Amino acid sequence: MTAPMAETDHDMKRRLPTDWKSNAMQKRISARYASERRFRLIGLAAIAMSAGFLAFLLISMLSSGLGGFTRTEIAVKFDFPKAAIMVDPAMLHGVNADQALSNANLPAATAQAAIDTLGKGGDELLSPSAWVEVRDIIKDDPAILGRSEILSLPASADIDLAAKGNAPAAAEQAYARLDEAGLVSRSFNGGFLTSSDATDPSQVGIWGALKGSLLTMAVTLLLSFPIGVLAALYLEEYAPRNRWTDMIEVSINNLAAVPSIIFGLLGLAIFLNLLHLPRSAALVGGMTLALMTMPVIVIAGRNAIKAVPPSIRDAALGIGASPVQVVFHHVLPLALPGIMTGTIIGMARALGETAPLLMIGMRAFIASPPDGITAPATVLPVQIFLWSDEVSKGFVEKTSAAIIVLLMFLLGMNSIAIYLRNKFEKRW
Amino acid sequence: MSARNVNVYYGEKQAIKEVSIDVDTDNVTAFIGPSGCGKSTFLRTLNRMNDTVPSARVEGEITLDGENIYSSGMDVVQLRARVGMVFQKPNPFPKSIYDNIAYGPRIHGLASSKADLDTIVESSLRRAGLWEEVKDRLKDSGTALSGGQQQRLCIGRAIAVEPEVILMDEPCSALDPIATAKIEELIHELRGRYAIVIVTHNMQQAARVSQRTAFFHLGNLVEYGVTSEIFTNPREEKTKDYITGRYG
């Protein structure tokens, strides 16, 4: 009896064929499908949310900032022969034109013309810089001094605001009167892209800050890219693995996470106080930001270099390439796309950085674009920060307009980076 | 090329024990043995590729034309040009076929003109048996070739610098049988012109391509001799067990 029993036991222990159609199995299948669907929905929701935030940012910036690129103009009848413009037409040709016109009492003449055209208080309706345009018109065409002409001159900040529908009651009324008389018009504000900071919001421009940003970024890139790439190459390809290199690695990782204001303090202490480099200059700003960008490039560079397959190094060494040749002929070209991605992330962060630049004096009011890396300059984010702090309402749309310019700058930088990366990318 | 009492250590672990061997210039030498027996390690000491492993240490003497390759006067870069290497996995550079072959001659300054370089590229590809297949697309990437073609490209790259010895580390293990047959045929053709040392897992391959065979086991060189004798009449019991498939 025992033997057959054992056999039955054995049979009992044998597993039945899996019943793929059983209820439990069906439930498991539908649960699996459900979790799949759930995960997809959550992922989609995450994408939709970030896209929504981005769209909100862009739309709000564009709607409030686009106005900053236009200006309101008022038609003013300028009777040049009658106006008290004291200038010798013969002087208007050649280099002395500016000198002659600056002594010609143009501000008073412009104010008088405005009062004549627009009635009492008419001069208040024009921008304080309206006479500058009159000067430029005269310079372009001295013959105008002999006749009477209707000129479109920039309106004051209040009238400009009223035209865009957000101004004090008095300005609204003045604007309504002008509008009825058909004297106001809107045009593209070229001055915003070509001039620099000013105290009056109708005269401000972004060019000074944009140029400052360009110069600062150039200094940052020229310093941080070579140093960062060489450091990454040395650490990956040459440095022995020991306690010292571990310490350096930890320090570099730490450096990448240090709050940017601390780099500003470092720049202040070393570049300004110790080395006596010029304050507020793109040179010092670029050096400070390079300190901040370099660790990012080192980390990205090391990862990109690590990702180069060792078989490529073997291949090159195996036919007698020296270590330097291996690095510069094979490893670096293959790692370059990754290094550039890291560089652009670091540069984008540097471009948007405000705090460290405040520490080294780049928040000064600078009314002319910098003419070199040692000239006083400001940069886009600092300019945005300064304008957002202004009391005058006209600065609101200028701030948004400056943000649009900053975003465009970033977009351009990233596009170049993607183009370069695709160009250098190789598959194996 | 000959080795005398060579010991190789990875840190504390000894990978090669007292190996002495003379590599014949006119013949193909095969290194066989079970996994981890040290045959690849020994191969890589022959052109100092083990220098790239920080923990590796080599004792003993390995000479090429009577010169100790581990002496301080030996230039590693030149040594590796004289003792070329083909690796297990085909590893062409992600450059054009032409540049793959031309790279070695370029860095060693072997060609005086563009025409000279063209000649070297063509003759190397011909000797690697690849010329007919790629002559119309020398500008294409070397990585776009099939596995077998890539490996022949790597062999062509190695012979473009006219080495004295070519080391092959399981050159066919990543290839299909047809590609393998082509590589073996190529080894036959290259024999005599270069001393060839091939590491292989495949005993039939060793029997087919080599005239001398060395059997390694646990870091020891167990037996070294004429291939036909090793396979038909081994002196050592261990060799016999291995080639009859008792272990491995």
CATH architecture of chain B: 3-Layer(aba) Sandwich
Reported for the largest beta sheet of chain B, the result is: 6 strands, mixed
- The CATH class of the largest domain in chain A is Mainly Alpha
SS class of chain B = alpha/beta
- Rg for CA atoms of chain B: 18 Å
Shape of chain A: extended
- The portion of residues forming beta strands of chain B comes to 25-35%
List the helices and strands and how they pair.
The complex is a heterodimer of chains A (428) and B (248).
Chain A: H1 2-13, H2 23-65, E1 70-79, H3 97-102, H4 106-118, H5 122-125, H6 130-140, E2 148-154, H7 157-163, H8 169-180, E3 184-188, H9 190-194, H10 207-238, H11 243-257, H12 260-274, H13 282-306, H14 310-318, H15 323-351, H16 355-359, H17 380-388, H18 395-424
Antiparallel strand pairs in A: 1-2, 1-3
Chain B: E1 2-10, E2 13-22, E3 28-32, H1 39-45, E4 56-64, E5 67-68, H2 76-82, E6 83-86, H3 97-107, H4 114-127, H5 131-134, H6 147-159, E7 165-169, H7 177-190, E8 195-199, H8 203-209, E9 212-217, E10 220-226, H9 227-232, H10 237-243
Parallel strand pairs in B: 3-8, 3-9, 6-7, 7-8
Antiparallel strand pairs in B: 1-2, 1-4, 4-5, 9-10
Helix pairs in contact in B: 3-4, 3-6, 4-6, 6-7
List keywords for this structure.
heterodimer, A: 428 residues, mainly alpha, MetI-like fold, three-stranded antiparallel beta sheet, 18 helices, 3 strands, 5% strand, B: 248 residues, alpha/beta, Rossmann fold, six-stranded mixed beta sheet, four-stranded antiparallel beta sheet, 10 helices, globular
Describe the overall structure.
The complex is a heterodimer of chains A (428) and B (248). With 428 residues, chain A is mainly α. Chain A has 2 domains: 67-189, no CATH class; 207-424, MetI-like (MetI-like fold, Orthogonal Bundle). Chain A contains 18 helices and 3 strands. The model of chain A has no long low-confidence stretch (mean pLDDT 85). Helices cover 36% and strands 25% of the residues of chain B. Chain B has 10 helices and 10 strands. In chain B, the strands form 2 sheets. A 6-stranded mixed β-sheet of chain B has the order 6-7-8-3-9-10, sandwiched between helices. Chain B has a 4-stranded antiparallel β-sheet with strand order 2-1-4-5, covered by helices on one side. In chain B, helix 4 packs across helix 6 (147-159). The chains are: A mainly alpha (428), B alpha/beta (248). The A-B interface holds A 240-241, 309, 311-322, 325, 329-330, 334, 426-428 and B 47, 49, 52, 54, 77-82, 84-87, 89, 91-94, 103-104, 107-108, 141, 143, 154, 157-158, 160-161.
